Every structure is written in structure tokens, then in C-alpha cells.
Amino acid sequence: MQYSSKVMEHFNNPRNVGEIPDADGIGNVGNPICGDIMRLYIKVKDGIIVDAKFKTFGCGAAIATSSMVTEMVKGKSIEEALNISNKAVAEALGGLPSIKMHCSVLAEEALKSALADYYKKHPK
Amino acid sequence: MKKIYLDNNATTAIHPDVLKEMLPYFEGFYGNPSSIHTYGQETRKAIEDAREKIAKLLNAESSEIVFTSCGTESNNHAIKGAAFSLQNKGKHIITSKIEHHAVIEVCEYLSKKFGFEITYIPVDKYGIVNPEDVKKAITDKTILISIMHINNETGTIQPIEEIGKIAQERQIVFHTDAVQSVGKIQIDVKKLGVSLLSLSGHKFYAPKGVGILYVRKGLKIHSLLHGGSHEKNRRAGTENVPYIVGIAKALDISHKDMAEESKRILYLREKLEKGILDKIEYSQINGHPENRIYNTSNISFDFIEGEGLLLSLDMEGIAASTGSACTSGTLEPSHVLAAMGVSPTKSQGSIRFSLGRQNTEAEIDKLLEVLPNIVSRLRMMSPLWEDKQKGIETQFEDSKKYH
Ligand SMILES: Cc1ncc(COP(=O)(O)O)c(C=O)c1O
Ligand code: FES
């Protein structure tokens, strides 16, 4: 199994590691099979995601996809963010080994969970 | 960058003297050992000399040594061979929960496809099988006991001699997977009381792709490969002459170097473990504190996951592994650590360092220099670490798509 250079680059220099203390939404998702856990924080202003941060307990792909998904959502509207799929995250990383595709699913679900949390905290 | 190889339980680099010994059998001596002419006689002699050398080192007889293609084949041959030849007496096999996949999956195959009943003996928190449990599991249908000698993931040593005594008393065929012990410690098949023993060359500086099955005199088991009278009808196929020459040389060297090397490597391993436990909080050794082979260290680093650790170490030129190399393709935590009661989360953060003849003290120093930074970098990214700092319990939803 070999990771793409983009995955390794994100694993080595992950973007947006950290917490957002006054986050508008937090997603916490764990994969029951591999046991990995992803936590995603978002900050929303006027319907736009202005900041995103993550903490991940997981493999190299889990860390790289967390990093990538936080990069992808920044500046996007909530609606646009809801359309980010795990495939898009994996593609942006130059692909993932097939046994590691589920790691990108974790990223998609962490994002959806953060958005759901945002809606819960900010009912329209 | 200088590379540091700390994965000698996965495989080792060929010893230069082993290679030198093998080369003539790739170049000049290529006769088929079954041939009657001089070409054949030369290679036949090479094989029989190798067999004799190996037999002596294991306190066996030459006729009890069968050359195979690897440790996996030896295990398959021993277990399937014994099961098929003895099934008229009963179809019960006793093994343990911490065996290598090359034993466990053979047992699963016999159970699923041929209706054998398998008992998997549990282990204690150090990963040791209690011989009393083996004794209790024996029924009048038990035809085979297979318990490994040294565990590949933790290095813990099993009480083979005691189990051997039980097996002899009850006259049950006893196999041990000694792939991780041969070449590291002195093996005496009589003292161990085994009827079958598997070993593999690439764990002690011979090439990959050559193994041995010791079959005690008088024991008849089915063959895996049919098609010729090679190896006294036990394993058909033209012998791999250079590799057989190589494995004999490698075993010979390892025995000559053993007294010194075992001390030297133990010193390095102790330094590694002490250094890690001192410098990195929330780290623990998995396996028995003393009853463990001198080259192996399995260490859990809480709150982080092993793959990230391995990738980061690899970038520093350091090669280690998570549990067994054969399981790196799966996502499930190690069955060995699970059997020892290590929690899945802890198990995910465990790394195996396995030392060998090429390792130096400077290499261990280098590891101890870079590892603490790697662990803290990964902990900074970990939600489990964040919650630990805050003193709260980690909460999360289960992923929906992958159940
Ligand atoms: C305990 C044990 N048994 C069996 C094997 C398989 O040996 P081989 O790689 O020669 O097939 C290994 C190593 O891979 C091992 O560590
Ligand atoms: S292996 Fe589970 S997230 Fe990558």
C-alpha cells in the first residue's frame, strides 16, 4: 500500500489542526471497524464557513483527509459544504488506496455531523 | 539519510557469508539433486550436508528434517498433514488465540471445510498460554496440539516444554511454530517434546522462501505436495539447492554468534525500552516483562494511532511495524493484543520494534531522539489527547456508512 505524495504532504503538514473554542458546529464521528475518530469544528458567518479546524485519532489517510476537508470547506456556503463528498476529498488528495477509501468517508461524515450540529444550534 | 531497520521479526537482511555460500549453487552447481550423474551428485551432497548440519543444531536426526518453501508452508504441512492422517482417531485440534495467521487460518479452513473442531486456548495479560488450560482442553478426540514458541508481535515465550510433556503423556501429536525462535535461541526438539516444528530462514539472515519442517521419526503425516519422491516422499518438487545451502549456513552462523549477539541485542532493547518509557508518558510495554525474547519490544502509545507513527518514523528513515506485517492490510486491531485484553484503542497505538544483528547503539539513540517529538506531534492532533487534557470522556457518533 502506497499513499500519494499529496496525502503524505498533508499528513506531514496538516492544515487547520486545532480547536475552535466558540465553534458554531462540532462533528464527532468514529469508525466502529478501525476505531478511528475525527472531530471537526466550524465557524459560520452569514451562511459562510469562515473557519474550520480538526483533531483526528487515525491513520495517515484519516489525518490527510481531515486536513483536506477543512481546506475545502473554508469560504463555502453551508449548502455547498453539504455537497462535498468523500470522493471529492479523496480526489483532491490524488486518490487513496482502496482499503483506505473509508477514511475519506469519515471526513465526509465528520463534516456532515458538524453541519447538523450547526443547524441544531442555529435553528432557522 | 542513514536508514535504521528495526523490523527484524518481519524479515532480516541476508548475511553476507550466507550469500557467499549460496552463490556457487546459482553459478556452477546446477545439477538436479535427483540425477544420477556428477552434476546431480554434487547438489545432492550439498543438500544432505545442509540437512545434517541443521539436524545437529536442532538435536534432531537428518531424516527428520524436511525442506519447505517457507514458514507458512511448514505450518500448513504440519497441521493439515497431521489432521488428515489422524482424522480417523478424532477431529479435535487445540491451538491458541495468539498464533500467527499461518496457523489460525489453517485451523479455520479445517474447521469450515472438513468439520474439525478447534479449541483456541486463551492467554493471560502477558500473552502466555497456561499449560493447565491445554491439559483441560484435551478430549479423547484430540489429535493435535499446535502452540507457537515465541509470539511474533510481542516476543513472549510460551511454555512449550511443559505443554510437550502433557502432549507426550497423552500421546498427542504436538506442533510448534518456532519461526520466531529458531536462530534467536538454542532449540532442542527433544527437550521441547515436540513432534513437529516449523521454522523459516528469512527470520535469521537466510533468504525469504526457504523453511523447514521437523517431523519426528515414526510420525507419518500427509503431504501437501504430491508428484515425486523428494524429501523421502514428504514434499515433492525439485529441491531449492542454493536456498537450502543458505538456510544451513545461516543457522550455523546464528548459533555461533548467539551467546554474544543475544547479550548485545538485549542491552540495546533494554536501552530502547527504558528510554521510551522515561521520555514518553502514557506508554507501556505489551508482553511479559522477563519471559520475552531479547530482540522484541511491543509498545503502546496512548491517544495516538500506530500508522501515523510508522509513517512519521519512516520519514526519519526508521522502519518499525504495527504488530505483524501480514495484518497491515486489514483494519482490525491485533488479535494477539486483543487476546491479552489490551483495549482496541490502546492496541491501535502500538508499535513493534524488533532488533537484529545490524543494529547499533547509535541507532537506538537516534530513535530515542526523534520518537518523543513524533508522539507529541500526533497527540497534538488527537481528539483523545485533547479530551484527556480537559479531563473529559471522548464522545462520538458511529460512522453511518460503514457498519
Ligand atoms: C510466528 C510466525 N509464523 C509463521 C510465519 C510465516 O513465515 P514465512 O514468512 O516464512 O511464510 C511468520 C512470519 O512471517 C511468523 O512470524
Ligand atoms: S484506517 Fe480507519 S480512518 Fe483510516
Characterization of this structure:
The complex is a heterodimer of chains A (124) and B (403). By secondary structure, chain A is α+β, with helices and mostly antiparallel strands. Chain A has one domain (5-121): Sufe protein. Chain: A. Helices cover 44% and strands 20% of the residues of chain A. Chain A is built from five helices and three strands. In chain A, a hairpin with a 2-residue loop joins strand 2 and strand 3. The longest helix of chain A has 21 residues, at 101-121. Chain A is globular. The model of chain A has no long low-confidence stretch (mean pLDDT 93). The radius of gyration of chain B is 22 Å and the shape is globular. In chain B, strand 3 (92-96), helix 5 and strand 4 (117-121) form a beta-alpha-beta unit. In chain B, 43% of the residues lie in helices and 14% in strands. Chain B is an alpha/beta fold. Chain B contains 15 helices and 13 strands. At the A-B interface, helix 1, strand 1, strand 2, strand 3 and helix 2 of A face helix 11, helix 13, helix 15 and strand 13 of B. The structure holds pyridoxal-5'-phosphate and FE2/S2 (inorganic) cluster. Residues 70-72, 75, 100, 102, 148, 152, 177, 179-180, 200, 202, 211 of chain B line the site of pyridoxal-5'-phosphate.
Give the tally of structural domains of chain B.
Answer: 2
* Topology, number of strands of chain B: 13
Helix content of chain B: 40-55%
Principal-axis shape of chain A: globular
Strand composition percent of chain A: 15-25%
The set of bound ligands, ions and cofactors reads: pyridoxal-5'-phosphate, FE2/S2 (inorganic) cluster
Instruction: Please identify the top-level CATH class of chain A.
Output: Alpha Beta
What series of H and E elements makes up the topology of chain A?
HEEEHHHH
CATH fold field value of chain A = Sufe protein. Chain: A
